[in-house]
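Board notes (copied after class):
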Amino acid sequence: MKRIAVFGSAGSIGRQSLEVLRKLKNFQLVSISCGKNICLLEKRICEFNPKYIYVVFLNFFFIPISNFKC
């Protein structure tokens, strides 16, 4: 299994990357980031269950997964 990080997941390229990732079964999303679209990020966290999250707008380097409700 190959591990993938998607930076800018709320942007157009990030959205397209996640579309492709949904169809590929031999890849795992381990890290995801976004600018400030926390609602969309929460949906992606619930879907992909990444290990690492980064929100640029908030300047957080680490957000515990337990903060998000899936």
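Comment from the instructor: The mean pLDDT is 86. Residues 16 and 60 are 25 Å apart (CA to CA).
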